[in-house]
């Protein structure tokens, strides 16, 4: 178990008619990011979380509870270091990963290299020792998602989101010791904390210059070997963030891109295909402009 004996976060049923993303402004920032790595266990019992939380539809990557669980099984009962640079993503996956890490049988050290935002900040709270790199950030906010339905669906969603926010606040409260009212204010404001502020508020234990410097030759070699995100994926992510900002659901966004890529339903006729790409692209442009 965690050396700090952190509480287990409650598991909640995932509503089927909701869409879960990191906030659109955070997705836009991440779209410009060129640093990514496959999550998993390195040889020295280090787990790298350098991607969105949850499955990434663009790359087939993303950090999931299944992948972290496999990494932990590979590491065994040794002390581990979890290195985070992530915009967040799926709250449910974030809570599941938090629970996996807090249940690890040895010490868990968390290092925030760039930022731990949204669901990634939940994961960071599982650390027995949380260390912020110089210039890094921690971001906390309320649960964020898209809901489609009538007024009854929206009222039900608001009640559910209250429960989600309370569960997230419980995790922050248990790790930081900050009073609930102050935590809720930070979440309401979608707060980006500098490394020093994260330490001041109790979301981290120390600012560590060595994290920015790469720490040692092995760390620098690993960072140098990290493959950048391909330009076409960055472009798709930027468009995806713009569509999310317009309130377009993830399902609808994927459908648009699938149409542009020609990944249409087999039932479409050849005549329909003739104007298929142009129509899909124009629809996407009109949506972004609206």
Walk me through what this model shows.
The protein has two domains: 18-224, 2-enoyl-CoA Hydratase, Chain A, domain 1, CATH 3.90.226; 248-289, no CATH class. Helix 2 (65-75) runs parallel beside helix 3 (91-102), helix 5 (151-176) packs across helix 6 and helix 11 packs antiparallel against helix 13. The chain has helices at residues 24-31, 65-75, 91-102, 119-124, 151-176, 180-188, 195-201, 209-213, 217-224, 231-245, 250-260, 270-273, 276-289; strands at 18-20, 40-41, 46-49, 80-86, 108-117, 129-133, 137-140, 145-147, 191-194, 206-208. It starts with 17 loop residues before the first strand and ends with a helix. With 290 residues, the chain is of the alpha/beta class. The strands form two sheets. Strands 2, 3, 4, 5, 6, 7, 9 and 10 form an eight-stranded mixed beta sheet that branches. Strands 1-8 form a two-stranded antiparallel ribbon.
Main sheet specs: 8 strands, mixed
Number of helices: 13
Ranges where pLDDT stays below 50 over 5 or more residues in a row are: 31-42, 213-228, 264-277
As a percent range, the share of helical residues equals 40-55%
CATH evolutionary superfamily of the largest domain: 2-enoyl-CoA Hydratase, Chain A, domain 1
The CATH architecture assignment of the largest domain turns out to be Alpha-Beta Complex
> What general outline do the C-alpha atoms trace?
globular
SSE order, as H and E?
A: EHEEHEHEHEEEHHEHEHHHHHH
The CATH class of the largest domain turns out to be Alpha Beta
CATH-assigned fold name of the largest domain: 2-enoyl-CoA Hydratase, Chain A, domain 1
Oligomer: single chain
* Proportion of residues in extended strands: 15-25%
Radius of gyration, Cα only, in angstroms? 20 Å
Mean pLDDT: 77
């Amino acid at each position: 178990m965690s050396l700090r004996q952190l509480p287990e976060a409650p598991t909640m049923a995932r509503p089927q008619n909701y869409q879960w993303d990191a906030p659109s402004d955070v997705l836009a920032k991440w779209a410009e990011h060129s640093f990514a790595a496959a999550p998993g266990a390195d040889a020295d019992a280090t787990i790298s979380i350098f991607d969105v939380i949850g499955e990434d539809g663009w790359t087939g990557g993303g950090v999931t509870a299944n992948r972290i669980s496999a990494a932990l099984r590979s590491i065994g009962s040794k002390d581990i270091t979890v290195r985070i640079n992530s915009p967040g993503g799926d709250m449910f996956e974030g809570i599941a990963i938090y629970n996996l890490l807090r249940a690890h049988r040895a010490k868990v050290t968390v290092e925030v290299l760039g930022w731990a935002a949204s669901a990634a900040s939940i994961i960071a709270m599982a650390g027995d020792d949380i260390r912020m790199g110089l210039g890094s950030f921690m971001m906390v906010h309320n649960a964020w998602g898209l809901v489609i339905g009538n007024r009854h669906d929206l009222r039900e969603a608001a009640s559910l989101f209250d429960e989600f926010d309370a569960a997230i606040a419980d995790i922050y409260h248990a790790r930081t010791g900050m009073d609930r009212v102050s935590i809720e204010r930070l979440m309401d404001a979608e707060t980006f904390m500098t490394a020093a502020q994260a330490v001041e508020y109790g979301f981290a234990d120390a600012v560590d210059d060595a994290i920015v410097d790469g720490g040692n030759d092995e760390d620098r070699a690993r960072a140098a070997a990290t493959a950048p995100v391909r330009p076409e994926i960055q472009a798709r992510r930027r468009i995806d963030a713009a569509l999310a900002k317009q309130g377009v659901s993830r399902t609808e966004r994927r459908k648009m891109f699938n149409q542009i890529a020609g990944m249409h339903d087999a039932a479409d006729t050849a005549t329909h295909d003739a104007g298929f790409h142009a129509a899909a692209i124009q629809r996407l442009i009109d949506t972004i402009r609206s």
